[in-house]
Design a protein that fits this description.
By secondary structure, the chain is α/β, with parallel strands linked by helices. The chain has one domain: Alpha/Beta hydrolase fold, catalytic domain (Rossmann fold, 3-Layer(aba) Sandwich), CATH 3.40.50. The chain is about 45% helix and about 15% strand. Helix 2 packs across helix 3, helix 4 packs antiparallel against helix 7 and helix 5 runs antiparallel to helix 6. The two termini are about 30 Å apart. The mean pLDDT is about 95. This is Alpha/beta fold hydrolase.
């Protein structure tokens, strides 16, 4: 595990604090994607949000970074921080990393949040598309791509400050890091069977207007999980945690309370 990953670690000092919460961002964002959740939940528990390898202030690994490498990084960081068990939340690519984490060290996970993501492996066309996009980002940088997809990442009607935050995260991402993760994500496994073996409570969240991972994808995830709650967030697209933080936090808070009560 690279000990140099950057991360936010907000700790609650009380011995009665709830189960730690670990937040895994999507592509091509960084840990500030989770600012509303860090602010909301660090009052009663430890909240950890890393910059994935190649994103934010974490160093870049060029070439190809598979989801398994990101999962190993998450595990190593939590080992470094002395966090044994936790609730794990991931959005989009972060959701797929969360599934990979569950496959590798599910015994440490007390609750699972899968937001605006899907479990299927990449299609042949998707492999070509992701690798072509990786080539484009390396050749052109991030700004053109960010301009093109902003109104899909967040809804066209999203607040101006949310749009600015999301656009800023995308344009600040190193193209080499984004490209490496795109190539790795193109080779991801099929997580559908894994979902049927998840033994912890799960929350599936999706923005009602998400065109990257539509509501139907979230419904499929929720059906596959043995103990899942589905939350469709109205007035949001691919980043409901930023677009509608109050609604997202309410659903996440319910899961955390359930996990804390069971503990």
């Amino acid at each position: 595990m690279p000990p140099y990953l950057t991360f936010t670690d907000k700790s609650h000092d009380s011995a009665s604090a709830g189960c730690p919460l670990v937040l895994v961002h999507g592509h091509p964002f960084d840990r500030t994607m989770w600012d509303p959740q860090v602010a909301e939940f660090s009052a009663d528990r430890r909240v950890i949000a890393p910059d994935l390898r190649g994103y934010g202030a974490s160093p870049v690994t060029s070439g190809k970074v598979p989801l398994s490498r990101h999962a190993e990084d998450v595990a190593g960081l939590l080992d470094l921080l002395g966090v044994d068990t936790f609730v794990l939340a991931g959005l989009s690519m972060g959701g797929q990393i969360a599934m990979e984490c569950y496959d590798r060290f599910g015994d440490r996970i007390r609750g699972l949040v899968l937001a605006d993501t899907f479990a299927e492996p990449e299609t042949p066309e998707g492999v070509r598309s992701r690798n072509a996009m990786a080539d484009r980002l390396l050749a052109e940088g991030m700004r053109g791509y960010a301009d093109e997809v902003l109104d899909r990442m967040v809804a066209p009607y999203a607040r101006a400050e949310v749009k600015a935050h999301v656009h800023g995260m995308m344009t600040a991402t190193d193209p080499r890091g984004a490209a490496a993760s795109l190539r790795g994500r193109a080779e991801r496994p099929d997580y559908r069977d894994l979902l049927t073996r998840v033994t912890v409570p799960a929350l599936v969240v999706v923005g009602a207007d998400d065109t990257y991972t539509p509501v139907a994808d979230a419904e499929s995830l929720a059906r596959s999980l043995p103990d899942a709650t589905l939350e469709v967030v109205e007035g949001a697209a691919h980043l409901p945690n930023l677009e509608r933080p109050k609604e997202f936090n309410r659903a996440l808070g319910d899961l955390l309370s359930h996990v804390d009560g069971a503990a």
